[in-house]
Write a structure and sequence with these properties.
The complex is a heterodimer of chains A (about 110) and B (about 110). With about 110 residues, chain A is an all-beta fold. Chain A has strands spanning about 5, 10-15, 20-25, 30-35, 45-50, 55, 65, 75-80, 85-95, 100-105, 105-110. In chain A, strands 2, 4, 5, 6, 9, 10 and 11 form a 7-stranded mixed sheet that branches. A 4-stranded antiparallel sheet of chain A has the order 1-3-8-7, with no helix packed on it. Chain A is globular. Chain B is built from no helices and 11 strands. Chain B is globular and about 40 Å long. Chain B starts with a strand and ends with a strand. Chains A and B meet through strand 5 and strand 10 of A and strand 5 of B.
Chain lengths: ~110, ~110
C-alpha cells in the first residue's frame, strides 16, 4: 500500500541534543509538509517542500531545519531541542497544492 | 489572515443521538477538509468538500459546505462509541497550506 512512513515513532532526547526525524513516502507526491502538534492543539505548519523548493513558515524557529534529498524522503532536524519542543511531529504529503494531504503516523518527541 | 473556528470544542453525547459540529471560516475559500484524529494517533482524512453545496456522507458522518456562508458542518447520526475522536476542519487558503480549526473533541458515552 502507498503510504507515508515516519521514523522513529517515539524519540527521547536530552535538552540541547540534536535530533533528526525522518519521513518517507511511496505516493510519489510533490509536496511534503512538516507539522508540530502539541497536546490538545491543532497541527501547526513548520515548513513544506514542493519538490526541492523549500518554504519556511515565518514563525518557525531557526532551531528547526529540514532537508529533502529526494522525492521520497524528508527530514526534520532540531538543532538544540528545548523543553517546549516536546510534541507530536507529523509529516504529510500531497500530490500538489490544494489537494488532500495524507498524514504519516507521527513521531512523538520527548525532551528531558 | 484566514481564521477557522470550530464549535463546539468539546462534545459529550450519548450513543444513538444526533449532533452537528460547525466550522466557520473568515475569508473566501472553496475547498475544505475534515480530518479525524484518535488519541495519540495521526490525522485521517474523512472528507474533502470542493464546491458550494457539496455534501458527502460516510457511514454515520455527513459533511456539507456552504461557501457563501463560509460554513461547513459535520453531522453525526446515531452516534456510536467508535466515533469518539477529535475532529478537525481545515480550510485551503488557495495557496500552499491549510489552516486548521482547533478541533472538536467528541466523546460518545454508552
Amino acid at each position: 500500500d502507498a503510504m507515508v512512513i515516519q521514523n522513529p515513532r517515539y524519540q527521547v532526547t536530552q535538552f540541547g541534543k540534536p535530533v533528526t526525524l525522518s519521513c518517507s513516502q511511496t505516493l510519489n507526491h510533490n509536496v511534503m509538509y512538516w507539522y508540530q502538534q502539541k497536546s490538545s492543539q491543532a497541527p501547526k505548519l513548520l515548513f513544506h517542500y514542493y519538490d526541492k523548493d523549500f518554504n519556511n513558515e515565518a514563525d518557525t524557529p531557526d532551531n528547526f531545519q529540514s532537508r529533502r534529498p529526494n522525492t521520497s524522503f524528508c527530514f526534520l532536524d532540531i538543532r538544540s531541542p528545548g523543553l517546549g519542543d516536546a510534541a507530536m511531529y507529523l509529516c504529510a504529503t500531497s500530490r500538489d497544492y490544494q489537494e488532500t494531504q495524507y498524514f504519516g503516523p507521527g513521531t512523538r518527541l520527548l525532551v528531558l | 489572515e484566514l481564521k477557522v473556528e470550530q464549535n463546539p470544542l468539546f462534545l459529550s453525547m450519548q450513543e444513538g443521538k444526533n449532533y452537528t459540529i460547525y466550522c466557520n471560516y473568515s475569508t473566501t475559500s472553496d475547498r475544505l477538509y475534515w480530518y479525524r484524529q484518535d488519541p495519540g494517533k495521526s490525522l485521517e482524512s474523512l472528507f474533502v468538500l470542493l464546491s458550494n453545496g457539496a455534501v458527502k456522507q460516510e457511514g454515520r458522518l455527513m459533511a456539507s459546505l456552504d461557501t457563501k456562508a463560509r460554513l461547513s458542518t459535520l453531522h453525526i447520526t446515531a452516534a456510536v462509541h467508535d466515533l469518539s475522536a477529535t475532529y478537525f476542519c481545515a480550510v485551503d487558503m488557495r495557496s500552499e497550506k491549510l489552516v486548521f480549526g482547533k478541533g472538536t473533541k467528541l466523546t460518545v458515552n454508552p
